[in-house]
Amino acid sequence: MNLDEIKTQPKEPNQQFVVGDKMLDFKLVDFWKWGLSDLIENRNRGVLAEFIVKQALEVKSNTRLEWDAFDLETEKGIKIEVKSAAYIQVWQQNNYSKISFGIAPTKTLLDDNNYSDTLKRHADVYVFCLLHHEEQETINPMNLNQWTFYLVKTATLDEKIPKQKSITLSSIKLLEHEKCSYSELKEKFHQITKEL
Length: 196
Fold this sequence. Notes:
Helix content: 10-25%
Low-confidence stretches: none
Number of strands: 9
Strand content: 15-25%
Order of helices and strands: EEHHEEEEEHEHEH
């Protein structure tokens, strides 16, 4: 059996669930509200960070691809890996979370549905997205002033820490990087990638 890749199409929020020909009284937006409203939770915050970077860099993609070797790709073919972290979590905390981001080299899925033999970082640039806000009562991941972004070329990671699986914020600051706000992200991205 040979099943082709399913190309995801954007869905409309008011699409209704059905049973056979019968329209039910709940819609796709109801699922989104139920399943994705917690934007502080690690998994959802990670997807949100990808979306924020996509918007800032005006990346043309209609939907997110979960299993790709990198998160975003610009029209110029620059591949981007987006990672997120936050001081505040949804669970009860005794202290702020220590900030670190995953940077482990990975295998990639090949055209024949097998994985490559070699481990590598597949993006050209990492965008580390820190939800830096420290007040639980006012944290709002949709307020982009509560985020700080750190951009590091993958070549820098490969040269300085080739086998490392994670990196702390203090270690990022020791590398060649660009730090910026949301409004500066596009400009800083172009600066760091102009020679790629």
